[in-house]
Write a structure and sequence with these properties.
With 122 residues, this protein is mostly helical. The protein is built from five helices and four strands.
Length: 122
């Protein structure tokens, strides 16, 4: 079986790794973290862990799906129907396109989506 992901999921993973690195590197509170990093962008200069996400994904030899305007349009509809944020709706849209029923994530927002089995690697 081959694994799949999308450019949106890789971007989101990169963002989350960057935020976790900021918390660890600068001993910051998660609450208000994005606002603080925008206010103090010099804190970003010391962060490096996010740069490992793309090489890691490449090494996994996953099928990478590009996000098109059609996917965004479908995801916008799904977002309203399933009460999901944009990137989560994009993930569900991509899963439906590929016929994928299993999702590895620590995001609880997918737990109640019919037809998806969530695997949490915590």
């Amino acid at each position: 079986m081959i694994g799949s992901t999308s450019t949106a999921a890789i971007a989101e993973a990169t963002h989350k790794v960057m935020l976790a690195d900021a918390v660890r590197t600068h001993n910051l509170d998660r609450k208000g973290l994005v606002f603080r990093l925008k206010r103090e962008p010099q804190l970003l200069a010391a962060l490096t862990e996010h740069k490992a996400v793309v090489p890691t994904v490449r090494a996994l030899n996953l099928q990478i799906e590009l996000i098109t305007l059609d996917f965004l349009e479908t995801a916008a509809d799904l977002s309203v129907q399933l009460c999901l944020l944009t990137n989560d709706a994009l993930t569900v849209t991509m899963m439906k396109k590929l016929g994928v029923a299993h999702l590895a994530t620590n995001d609880d927002d997918f737990d109640q989506i019919a037809g998806i089995t969530v695997w949490k690697p915590r």
